[in-house]
Design the sequence.
């Protein structure tokens, strides 16, 4: 991350003819909110922030105490490459403050900052993350879900009609200081993936919300629709966000140990054990929509069974094999989150679950190298393998009882998040589905 001073930002705005600056932040559910100021207001915004009405933001304040301040983070200044290059538009991601200029407890970015503060108090300097975000392209945003191609995993451009779309998306991501490692067609028809290089957790959460905006904006320029909906197509693979993660201490990967059979340190084992132990509690956060649980079913490469392994992709956590000289690459891949989550809350929950394991000395169970999808319920029970919740309703009830999730989110976010998710589940639960009308109405 290239740090910028207030003076440098003002100079860039002047030299590059930037007229508008969009101030970004997210609501509790991770939806990006934005309002624009002109270049003439930027100096004041950098010094004092900009006031706005928080009562209209999902999960924020009540109307009688709605005054909020959006304080731009100077390090997030970037010019939007898809906007006109005359009278350019830039964006800055904001921290949300109270009128007393204290961090606002309802700000998801602050939730992650609190978790990172705990990490640093425990002696670690970095929580590095490398998420793999998948998404689908459709011809529009209607329920027809009309695909653009019938390509599959790693298919060439003859079957992958969106290669130019991905190409322009990558150019825009790189223009916004987001480093790209891979891009390819995914397993599902019209499903795609662009992998971004690992970063510190806060920078990565900022990158994830930016990534989703960029993907959607470039798709719109091509006249198509991009969606991060976890399961948009029946009988096709869902859309995941596998997250590679490691803790560093003094520029040394705290997850690596040369002496261990799996090259895992005691720190990493306890961290992984913490995430496994608290996976069901975290589920409502990393899979926060009713649709998320249409993805988390056996048979479509989405892990549902709570176990870990070296190579086995049916396990919830995979530890990629160690290669000599690549100690810094030792990591744990949590495979259950989906990209429709709020990354600030998800990364905070993941980190706190891992830190809980370190702090309380959780024991890591033995790795599971069998294909967990092929085991019977009896076999899984004998092995002590539990599964993620089957629905958002079950996940919310588990999260509501979780001290870890309450501590992670804080009282304000926790209570409002639970309330919102309960309402979503109730609204969904009483709906009549096409399945019921097609299969039950004719015979009952």
Sequence:
């Amino acid at each position: 991350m290239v740090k910028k001073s207030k003076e440098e930002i003002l100079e860039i705005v002047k030299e590059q003819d930037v007229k508008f600056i969009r101030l970004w932040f997210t609501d509790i559910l991770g939806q990006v909110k934005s309002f624009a100021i002109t270049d003439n207001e930027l100096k004041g915004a950098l010094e004092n922030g900009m006031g706005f009405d928080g009562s209209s933001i999902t999960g924020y304040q009540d109307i009688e105490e709605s005054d909020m301040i959006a304080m731009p983070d100077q390090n997030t200044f970037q010019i939007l490459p898809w906007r006109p290059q005359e009278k350019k538009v830039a964006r800055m991601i904001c921290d949300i403050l109270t009128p007393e200029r204290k961090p606002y407890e309802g700000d998801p970015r602050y939730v992650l900052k609190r978790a990172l503060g705990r990490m640093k108090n425990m002696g670690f300097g970095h929580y590095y993350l490398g998420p793999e975000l998948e998404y689908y392209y459709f011809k529009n945003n209607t329920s027809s879900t009309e695909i653009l191609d019938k390509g599959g995993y790693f298919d060439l451009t003859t079957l992958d009609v969106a290669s130019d779309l991905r190409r322009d998306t990558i150019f825009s991501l790189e223009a916004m200081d987001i480093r790209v490692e891979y891009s390819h067609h995914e397993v599902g028809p019209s499903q795609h993936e662009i992998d971004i290089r690992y970063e510190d957790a806060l920078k990565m959460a900022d990158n994830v919300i930016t990534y989703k905006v960029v993907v959607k904006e470039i798709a719109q320029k091509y006249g198509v629709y991009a969606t991060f909906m976890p399961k948009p197509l029946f009988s096709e693979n869902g859309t995941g966000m596998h997250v590679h993660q490691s803790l560093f201490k003094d520029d040394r990967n705290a997850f690596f140990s040369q002496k261990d059979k799996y090259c895992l340190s005691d720190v990493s084992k306890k961290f992984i054990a913490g995430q496994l132990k608290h996976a069901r509690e975290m589920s409502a956060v990393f899979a926060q929509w009713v649709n998320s649980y249409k993805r988390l079913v056996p048979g479509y490469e989405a892990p549902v069974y709570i176990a870990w392994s070296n190579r086995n992709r049916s396990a919830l956590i995979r530890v990629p094999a160690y290669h000599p000289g690549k100690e810094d690459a030792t990591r744990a891949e949590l495979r259950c989150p989906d990209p429709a989550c709020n990354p600030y809350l998800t990364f905070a929950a993941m980190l706190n679950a891992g830190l809980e394991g370190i702090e309380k000395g959780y024991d890591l169970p033995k790795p599971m190298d069998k294909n967990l999808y092929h085991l019977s319920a009896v076999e899984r029970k004998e092995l002590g393998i539990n599964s993620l919740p089957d629905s958002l309703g079950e996940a919310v009830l588990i999260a509501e009882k979780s001290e870890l999730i309450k501590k992670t989110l804080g009282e304000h976010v926790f209570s409002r998040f639970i309330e919102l998710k309960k309402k979503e589940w109730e609204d969904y639960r009483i709906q009549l589905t096409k399945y019921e009308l097609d299969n039950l109405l004719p015979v009952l």
